[in-house]
Amino acid sequence: MMTKRLCVLPIFAACLGFSLLAADDQPPAKSEGITKEQADAILSELKAIHELLAKSLPAAPAPAPTTPAAEVKASMSLDGREMLGSKTAPVTIVEFTDYQCPFCRQFHTTTFEQIRKKYIDSGKVRFVTVDFPLDFHSNAEKAAEAGHCANDQGQFWRMRDVLSQNADKLDSANLIAFSQSLYLDVPAFKSCLEAGKFKQVVSDNHKAGAEVGVTGTPTFLIGKSTPEGVSGVIFVGAQPFDAFEVKIKEFDAQPIAH
Question: Do 103 and 50 share a structural domain?
């Protein structure tokens, strides 16, 4: 097709040359510019060249048909992890979160509350949070440790709620202030945080997320509850409640795994 594009250029040059030769044949004394007839002839000629060029250009390729991305299946052991809801719930949602992530906060303040009221509190879904602090969020790792330090005093879920709602206020001073607002043993909490008692736990959680394909937050593993944990699919982003509900119903309809 490239050859066809180039072949039309000599034609255009020949046409222009013909016009110049025709002009040279006219007596100089009578050269007073082109007449209307000559102008119309040139326009007609240019139009013909334009049409020839258009025919020589390749047709634009048809857009490739789009196909929905295939679901990524994954399974995970939940041994020893804190769960919200009934341990015998048929469906499990594992949240991989970064407390400094604004989209995680969006999920927590909107969709999570709807899931909690309709499915967690009713015993149909059990919910698990796994740390996945991102490198470019300077306060995320320490905030994740704060959740585990609060868990030492039985207040993991209340601390998670506070951390999730304050994604832009997770410096060390605020983490201590959060422990005070939850009436924790502040010196014990502070000592836990400063010693990095759960630094390795947070690192191991991040690794567990990476092993099932998590690359950003929030990401979820939604599936059928199993004796070991959960078997389902990866679900990415702070999606609306309706999207979560479709998946919950899909896995709830499946037979109980043994």
Answer: no
Q: Read off the amino acid at residue 5.
A: R
pLDDT tens-digit map of 47-69: 766 666 666 556 555 555 554 56
Distance between CA atoms of residues 186 and 176, nearest Å:
7
| Euclidean distance between CA atoms 6 and 9, whole angstroms | 6
Q: Do 39 and 138 have their domain in common? A: no
% of the chain residues with pLDDT over 70:
72
In a domain, 174, yes or no: yes
What percent of the chain is modeled with pLDDT above 90? 69
Q: Are residues 52 and 154 in the same domain?
A: no
CA dihedral 80, 183, 118, 238 (to 10 degrees): -80
The domain spanning residue 147 has which CATH number?
3.40.30.10
Mean pLDDT over 170-196 rounds to 98
Max CA pair span of the chain = 108
Q: Which amino acid is at 209?
A: G
